[in-house]
Amino acid sequence: MDESDQADGHTRAVSGGHIGADAPFDIGEENPIFGERHVDAGVRFNSKEEAAMNTRICAMAIIAALYAAILAESASAQPAAAYPSKPIRLIVPLAAGGPSDTMARTLAHKLTEVAGQNVIVDNRPGASGIIGTEIAAKSPPDGYTILLVSTAVSINPSLFRKLPYDTVKDLQAVSLLAGAPYILAVHPSLPVKTVKQLVTLAKARPGELNHASGGSGTGPHLGMEVFMQRAGIRVVHITYKGGGPAMNDFVAGQTQVYMANMITMFPQVKAGRSRALAVTSLKRSPAAPDIPTVSESGVPGFDEGGHHGIVAPAGVPKEIIAKLSRDIVTAMRSPEITKRLSVEGAEVIASTPGEYGAMIGRDIEKWAKVIRAAGIQPQ
Known about the structure:
This protein has 13 helices and twelve strands. By secondary structure, it is an alpha/beta fold. The chain has three domains: about 5-80, no CATH class; about 85-180 and about 310-375, Bordetella uptake gene, domain 1 (D-Maltodextrin-Binding Protein, domain 2); about 180-295, Periplasmic binding protein-like II (D-Maltodextrin-Binding Protein, domain 2). The strands form two sheets. Strands 3, 4, 5, 6, 7, 8, 9, 10, 11 and 12 form a ten-stranded mixed beta sheet that branches. A two-stranded antiparallel ribbon has the order 1-2. α3 (about 100-115) packs across α11 (about 320-330) and α8 (about 220-230) packs across α13 (about 355-375). The longest helix is centred in the first third of the chain and has 35 residues, at about 50-80. The termini are far apart.
């Protein structure tokens, strides 16, 4: 090769001529490994071997990146696979002995069996359930603290001006456990035996009748507000600090009308201390098939009732939420729980997280409208 060949060797290689053993390789020409032509970025290799080595390095880097991604995905799935590996705390934001506490302990017993770890009920009552809810909302989002909620989870955002948590942002739904209708009842001394007779009497004696509740803004109280709005009547509200005192005065004849949870009212009906006019579900309750519904008694489409569900702090990995929800559904649909709740007039629902979350969102909007229409001032 003469001086001209040596000087122009690189130029011929770039122009697409045959690449000799000693000719440099430019990334602007066809790559001998992949058979592709790359854009010239000004990087040149001294030989085919160097270019091939660079290609192998790039390929190894890509493989390493893919492997790292697979490991990361596997690592994220490991917590769900191992969950639960220690006891689960189930916070109940109400006092022991009530319907919510009973539901929590019923679930905890069976969920312990299904999940393979102890589920410990932790009662944290106070401030209409706000204290216990705040504790749960601010707990680590690891799936080891869950919260049993009632209808109040959708009512409190409109009933209180400022909550120490955001119901929508700080909590996430796990499963709607079960629901039960209320019973609209009157004291036996009141001369009415049907919903229509109650409405007629209330219209004939405006402001004279009264109704009890276990607290302003509770589910049964707002259910009664919906009934009055739909029926076009007004009955004076007498509020008590809890369902126990409210029931005591009602059976003693101090109050005349009471819409209460079926679990607490039905025993009074069977004992003759209360007269049931209707249940508040769309269908008659299997536990009390002889009691008509409000809907069939003159207020078409009326459908109110209480429910219990499980929520968790926001941020719990979706894989853990899914595992927890599946275990809860299995527990709630067991023959033992289904039979026990049906006797009390409740129906097992055992929903998915998405279904329960959508319901909470709808109910927050619904109760906001009811509270405004009733003139209830936020606390």
